[in-house]
Amino acid sequence: MRGRVGAHEHRRDTRDDPLLAQGADPASQLYVGMKHKQSEAIGMNSIQVELPAEATQEEVEAVIDRLNADPACHGYIVQLPLPKHLDTDAILERIDPAKDADGLHPTNLGRLVLNVNAPILTPLPCTPRGVIELLLRNDYDLKGKEVVVVGRGVTIGRSIGLLLTRREINATVTLTHTGTADLAKHLREADVIVAAAGVKHIVRAEDVKPGAAVLDVGVTRETDPETGKSRVYGDVHPDVAEVAGFVSPNPGRRGPRTVAP
Predict the structure, then answer these.
(1) Which residue in 16, 17, 25, 79 is the catalytic one?
(2) What total number of domains does the chain contain?
(3) I want to staple 234 with a disulfide (CB 3.0 to 4.6 A). Which of 4, 96, 228, 250 is the partner?
């Protein structure tokens, strides 16, 4: 079982922006594949280096050190989740904050926490940024809206509220997760739902307020025991489309916006 270390060049020159992914998580493999595909579609260089899933902490950190020191690389991401034997926090903290394309280094997250009003010049978490851009570009006004986020992962759940509550967006955010006692109650009160728990169809039509905007950024992959084929599911049940006023399904529309920032 082999993991992936990939690279993406975000400018049409000789520099590389690597994407580091290690391990065989199915959702990560899908995301990495999208990154490479989108890079090629717009004429950007895309590099992928393989690491074994059993790679040690020292081996992964050595790759990060090399990218940090490489003047030809001006940005990269560590594709999460990493295998459980690795110290993810230590790996994220080892990234040069100036090259942290995912905005997950403690320095960049800290700057996001501190900065409520002024323009942000540091890297931002890609998927939360993509979710907000998707709404804004469809003329959805988030000001004053009640947003319920389902999921507490660092890549989406814990960081998207920091962006949504900035004064320029001005939304009110409730963070829920699989341990929330009455999730349905929170969902029914939401103007906007961002589903990011990685739990198949955790958001159901009966729990969505008519006209709400629902964005699915959760991924679950299951293997059909009869056919042996693998299928991808989102956090939002397809029936939600009959109730919601705006839906970004998964698999579906949100992917290109996620990989673009």
Answers:
(1) 79
(2) 2
(3) 250
Q: What is the CATH number of the domain that holds 225?
A: 3.40.50.720
| 22 a catalytic residue | no
Cβ atoms within 10 A of the Cβ of 15, count?
15
Tell me, yes or no, whether 44 lies in a domain: yes
For this structure, is 29 an active site residue?
no
Q: Which of 106, 140, 172 is the last residue of a domain?
A: 106
Same-domain status, 61 and 158: no
Question: Is residue 221 situated within a structural domain?
Answer: yes
pTM of the model: 0.80
Alpha helices by DSSP H, the chain: 26-41, 57-69, 88-94, 106-114, 126-136, 157-164, 183-188, 254-259
Q: How confident is the model at residue 42 (pLDDT cuts 50, 70, 90)?
A: confident
Written as six digits, the tokens of 213 are: 């905007």
pLDDT at 27 over 70: no
